[in-house]
Amino acid sequence: MILDEVIVAVNGSRMDRFVSYSITIDLFSPEGSFTFETDSKYDIYKGDACEIFVNRKRVMAGVVDTVTRSLSRQGAKLTIEGRSVASILTDSCVTSFATLPTTLDKLAEKLVRGLPFIGKKDFVYNSKSKNASVSRKFVEITPGDTVFEVIKRAANSQGFLFWASPDGKFVFDKPLERGRADYKIHAFSDGSEIDYIEGSVKESIAGLHSEVKVIGESQDGDDIKYVAAVVKNSDMPFDKPLVVNWNENDGPAKKTAELQMAVEKAESTQLEYLVKGHSQNGNNWEINRFVDVQDDYNGANDSYLVKSVNFTLDRLQGKQTRLTLQPGGAI
């Protein structure tokens, strides 16, 4: 196997000679993107389905959006651009406004019916998500809603993450808060080890609250408000409370507050690293995996979730990967 070999399989052919490329895979933006530039001739056309492999492991099932062919005194150039098959869900609006099912499996099956490249067999239901019952208000459609928005809204309402896996499956699962680290990024202050080319850690309180207070209404009809649940955040340096409306159809109030706080904490810390190559110890960098970070200079020492991966190649820098990490637990 060639180290960090990238292959695009399309129309029965293999595209593997590149001038440059960029492949972006994001846990929370599952459509991702890719761009490949080559000076070789390939029979690739707009609308083609393709598969992208790194080290013989599929990292994206994609659809070609744009093909550009050009010729100059420097020679011929072919550029293809596209996104993952999840772009079918993010681009396609719901066109039927009939009543929708209120379980995740039936909802997904109904909404993808008739869409290209995607069928009910492409959905995976983990953590008992398959028969999760969704409140009717979370599956109400307004003109302009995309298939992805409706499914994601329904999944999130029950505390599930909805994401696209590298093998082209659409997964419902609980967001990972902690897990075994599959990779490491170390940068010790004594200079004995440094695993990245560039690294940064950004911490912000802009979207952080000192407590999340969930407020409901009493059932006696006099519109009296009451506190249903409170979750406090010891990481917030001063008081900045958030009040969230709630009713019984939203599920347990405590879960509502805890999910809100988990999202805030995850989004308040973002780590970004640029590393050589596309893998570590034979394992491709992948989203939804944990990294053991011990970065003395930037003050990060914990296990962080891989939020996004960007594989790149250019003639000056060679093969590199840009990683975005954050604490686990967000949906």
Structural account:
The protein has helices at residues 86-91, 104-112, 147-157, 253-268, and strands at 6-10, 13-15, 20-26, 33-38, 49-54, 57-72, 75-84, 123-125, 161-164, 170-173, 181-187, 198-203, 211-217, 225-232, 241-245, 269-276, 279-280, 283-284, 290-295, 300-314, 318-326. The protein is mainly beta and 331 residues long. A hairpin with a 6-residue loop joins strand 3 (20-26) and strand 4. The longest helix is centred in the last third of the chain and has 16 residues, at 253-268.
Keywords:
single chain, 331 residues, mainly beta, 13-stranded mixed sheet, 3-stranded mixed sheet, 21 strands, flat
Give the low-confidence spans: none
Count of individual beta strands: 21
Q: Structural class, from helix and strand content?
A: mainly beta
What level of helicity do the residues show?
Answer: 10-25%
Topology:
Blueprint: E1 6-10, E2 13-15, E3 20-26, E4 33-38, E5 49-54, E6 57-72, E7 75-84, H1 86-91, H2 104-112, E8 123-125, H3 147-157, E9 161-164, E10 170-173, E11 181-187, E12 198-203, E13 211-217, E14 225-232, E15 241-245, H4 253-268, E16 269-276, E17 279-280, E18 283-284, E19 290-295, E20 300-314, E21 318-326
